[in-house]
Design goal:
The chain is an alpha+beta fold. The protein contains seven helices and five strands. It has a three-stranded antiparallel beta sheet. A two-stranded parallel sheet has the order 1-2.
């Protein structure tokens, strides 16, 4: 058997604050903390999977609780110590925040990428999660994958417009 060691479906689920259920296969268990952002079950063990599903079904508030705690570490939004939310981009190990750059955050990231590469190449975002406020306002009844893609496209468009304006 071949096992995917970093499945995009899993990463996209976590990035869009969607709890997951995965078998205990290496490459998946590194991302899942039992009871915080999902659950694991013993590989090839349908009884253990049934146990996890029964637990989720018998605890109706669990799904929402897990969703509120689920994220992927390279988050696009961070909460500051004083409770403010900030848009954060990590590029080449350097952090750019809206607290630091204000409305100029997209230009700052585009300038850094242009200076780093020496050319105007398309900017695409690989790791991203929906900000909690955006998620609660835009997709209260699900559809998180769709809204994740819309938000990702919005940020990419703003970054590429800033790059084009350089």
């Amino acid at each position: 058997r071949w096992y995917e060691n970093s499945p995009l479906v899993l990463l996209n689920a976590l990035a869009s604050h969607t709890p997951v259920i995965v078998s205990d296969v290496e490459g998946m268990t590194e991302f899942v903390e039992n009871g915080r952002n999902g659950f694991t079950f013993k590989r090839d063990n349908k009884e253990d999977l049934q146990r996890v599903l029964d637990h989720i079904i018998s605890t109706p508030s669990l799904a929402e609780s897990l969703s509120n705690q689920t994220d992927y570490p390279k988050d696009s939004e961070k909460m500051t110590k004083d409770g403010k939310r900030a848009l954060v981009f990590e590029v080449d190990g350097k952090l750019f925040t809206s607290l630091q750059h204000g409305d100029g955050i997209f230009r700052a990231v585009a300038e850094h990428m242009y200076n780093f590469s020496g050319r105007k190449r398309h900017i695409s975002i690989s790791d991203l999660s929906l900000p909690l406020g955006y998620r609660k306002k835009q997709c209260p009844r699900g559809g998180k994958t769709y809204h994740f893609l819309v938000y990702k496209n919005l940020l990419e468009r703003k970054l590429n417009e800033a790059l084009k304006a350089l």
